[in-house]
């Protein structure tokens, strides 16, 4: 692959760039058409008449407005086949989009165990991962809701014990304001003691102080982290500790975290030496997969080839892949952009 095949005189074809997607919620990859298909086969009624009406409902005011739709969407996931189809479809789409390695969140807390036992859900998800392993490299991350008691997070961590050997990391998401990371210290400590990497959503809608708390928790990665731009000392700490930020530009735009992508802090943070990465978050609801995010940011922030290279390398560096695999992808990125 040569520079010319990725970049014509007019534009970059970001599908051709070997990319990572390190911050994506499996539940957020449920495309409206698939959502309606599952609802029909599971006899579930929906507040939207058809997929087009759901697309219309995807004009969100903020994170809470989005989460209401997202949790409603999760209700159509009922059978083992649903979880298999969802996982398989995301991996297929990500692979076609040029994602070479993905690390996705999945939160079993959302699903009522009396409907489908956890072992059936996990069997479905991992079986799709297995069936797609020749086409895309993939790591699973458990996650919990910050709006629920910390005891529930610890319980969720315990419940996943049989799958620990297949889990790379644990995280935390949900409505951020009023739910600081520090409240979940017992959960994050337990994750760490059990040998997992940890990441937390912080500084998406919440303040820089929440990002600071995440640093104090010794996290391996911060999901979003936008608010750190307001605190130069905090940014310096993120640089020194080499804590990556998994940023999600189109998500930020759709949830009004930024009014316009030209205001996105990603480029400024990159120039300060932060390990920032580009990711999709909930691509079905935000209408943007990985390469859409790259193209949107490139257009809004006018990235140079060297910045594109650094962002792609950051994705590999920030991943939880073993050293040797990282080296292989770094070389492929270099070849794709510069040879
Ligand atoms: N953007 C987001 N922020 C917090 N929690 C989430 N869960 C799914 N998407 C999320
Ligand atoms: Zn997220």
From TrEMBL:
Q: Gene encoding it?
A: add
Keywords in UniProt for this one? Hydrolase, Metal-binding, Nucleotide metabolism, Zinc
Protein residues bound to Zn(2+): 23, 25, 201, 281
Q: What reaction is this protein's catalytic activity?
A: adenine + H2O + H(+) = hypoxanthine + NH4(+)
Cofactor(s) in the UniProt record: Zn(2+)
* Gene3D superfamilies linked to this entry: Metal-dependent hydrolases
Under Enzyme Commission nomenclature, its number is 3.5.4.2
Residue span, Adenosine deaminase domain:
18-335
Which domain of life does the UniProt lineage start with? Bacteria
Q: What does this protein do?
A: Catalyzes the hydrolytic deamination of adenine to hypoxanthine. Plays an important role in the purine salvage pathway and in nitrogen catabolism.
Q: What is this protein called?
A: Adenine deaminase
Task: Write down the SUPFAM superfamilies for this protein, in alphabetical order.
Answer: Metallo-dependent hydrolases
Q: Which organism is it from?
A: Victivallis lenta
GO MF term list: adenine deaminase activity; zinc ion binding
Please tell me where substrate binds in this chain. Answer: 282
- Looking at the UniProt record, the site noted as Important for catalytic activity sits at 224
Q: Which residues form the active site?
A: 204
